[in-house]
Design a protein that fits this description.
Elements lengths: L13 H11 L22 H10 L2 H5 L18 H19 L3 H10 L9 H10 L8 H11 L6 H8 L3 H7 L18 H23 L2 H9 L3 H12 L3 H9 L6 H26 L6 H17 L8 H15 L6 H19 L2 H23 L6 H9 L4 H11 L2 H12 L8
Helix pairs in contact: 2-5, 4-5, 4-10, 4-14, 5-8, 5-10, 8-10, 9-16, 10-14, 10-17, 12-13, 12-17, 15-16, 18-20, 18-21
Keywords: Coiled coil, Hydrolase
GO molecular function: triphosphoric monoester hydrolase activity
Organism: Anaerosalibacter bizertensis
Length: about 425
């Protein structure tokens, strides 16, 4: 009996991988640029996968393992960090990309790079630095990620830069200022390609599911229930609506303890993929051309339509205008939920913001972080000679304002390192400890 050997006699070259992958990428996805003259030193990876790996081996990516996601480390060590968050974002993004026929290597690179410029201690420190640098262009972790990788001369394509930059609505909605870093080549005020949009939602969904787990499975939820009588019933209703299987949905309405996070992830992804596919198929009717700008043009049209319906031209308050722009960006993306599901998503997000992010436990963690970083920032600004020599050199060169250089240094810190420097500068310990 003959047995067919399915193994290739020769290893598969990168260029052949790109050709093979391109056959699986839909007409609206970003294709691999197959070029026999490029990357002659590389043999077994696609170009986007090489870029992903360059990000993976940066110090900034490794430092994510000791950067808080929402709340400081738990005693049993199973807390989320920026690193675990980035890995979860990649897993979700690749699953969506595979289902929609998009470029999985591109979304993987964007996902792993999207937070490499993030501050220690979570978004509280990002907001602090943004306030301190208002007169110097503000601070956005999305722009900072691009800035960090650019300063280290990490070679990435425009598609990866753009995806990292556009994973956050603040960049589109008005917070972006080129004084932090001139990202003009990557069109910060325009929506990105479909792969960028996939990572945008993968980031949001990773946040949603791990915030829910970290809330629901801790004392924070039990404490919140004592002071908010309707919390459990509100949560039951939203979760039941997010779970489309009738039998499981019914059980959740009867007893919230029957809920499992994997059901939430599965159903949320299913709705996002199904609705996104409908939106992508509509493009075939709207446009005959395969012009790469079709995706951006159509997304921009959808966003602007929502802004007009919200009466943005009549809004004078900048904060209100920014709120409308952020909502329009989120709802206008081609990669999206249907209307009902989107509202359920917002409902669950609001519960988590009100009862988890605003909980005393998280707020105390944020307050501690601000105390540490505010002290470091003020001391570094007032006496730059206590900074490492390479940071001092940047300040002396005056290429960037002192505030920006100090913000770069703080953003690069891990939680533990920031605490150690704070203790070193503020404790009465031995004079010889430095």
């Amino acid at each position: 009996m003959d047995k067919t050997n399915n193994f290739s006699k020769y290893s598969i070259k990168g260029i052949d991988l790109e050709r093979r992958e391109n056959k699986n990428i839909c007409e609206w996805g970003v294709k691999h640029e197959v070029n026999s003259n490029k990357n002659k030193e590389e043999t077994h990876r696609t170009d986007f996968r090489r870029q992903r790996d360059r990000i993976l081996y940066t110090g900034g990516f490794r430092r994510l393992q000791d950067k808080t996601q929402v709340i400081a480390a738990t005693k049993n060590g199973d807390h989320r960090t920026r690193l675990t968050h980035s890995l979860e974002v990649e897993q979700i993004a690749v699953s969506i990309a595979d289902a929609l026929g998009l470029n999985r290597d591109l979304v993987s690179a964007i996902a792993l790079g999207h937070d490499v410029g993030h501050t220690p201690f979570g978004h509280a420190v990002e907001r602090f630095l943004d306030d301190k640098l208002k007169d110097k262009g503000g601070f956005s972790h999305a722009v900072q990620s691009v800035r960090y990788l650019k300063k280290r001369k990490v070679r990435l394509s425009a598609e990866v830069w753009e995806g990292i930059l556009k994973h956050d609505t603040d960049v589109y909605a008005g917070a972006y200022d080129k004084r932090q870093f001139d990202c003009g080549d990557y069109f910060p005020k325009e929506p990105g390609n479909l792969e960028s949009q996939v990572v945008y939602w993968a980031d949001k969904l990773a946040y949603l599911t791990h915030d829910f787990e970290d809330f629901y499975e801790t004392e924070i939820y039990k404490n919140a229930k004592e002071y908010h009588n309707d919390l459990e019933s509100e949560l039951q209703d939203i979760l039941a609506n997010l779970i489309t299987e009738e039998e499981k949905s019914k059980k959740i309405k009867e007893d919230i303890k029957k809920f499992e996070t994997r059901d939430l992830i599965r159903n949320v992804l299913r709705n996002l993929i199904d609705e996104s596919l409908k939106n992508i198929n509509k493009l075939k009717v709207l446009k005959i051309t395969l012009d790469p700008d079709v995706i951006k043009d159509e997304t921009k049209y959808r966003i602007e339509k929502i802004e007009i319906n919200k009466g943005i031209d009549n809004v004078r308050n900048e904060d209100e205008k920014r709120k409308i722009k952020k909502e329009a960006y989120q709802k206008g993306l081609i990669i999206n939920f249907n209307e009902d599901y989107y509202n359920y998503y917002l409902g669950l997000r609001k519960i988590l913001d009100d009862h988890y992010i605003s909980s005393p436990e998280v707020q105390r963690s944020d307050a501690k972080a601000i105390k540490i970083v505010e002290s470091l920032y003020d001391q570094f600004i007032n006496n730059y000679k206590i900074l490492p020599l390479n940071v001092q050199k940047e300040i002396k060169e005056k290429k960037y304002p002192r505030k920006r250089v100090v913000a770069d240094y703080i953003a690069s810190m891990t939680d533990r390192y920031a605490e150690e420097i704070f203790t070193n500068l503020n404790s009465i310990g031995s004079y010889y400890d430095y």
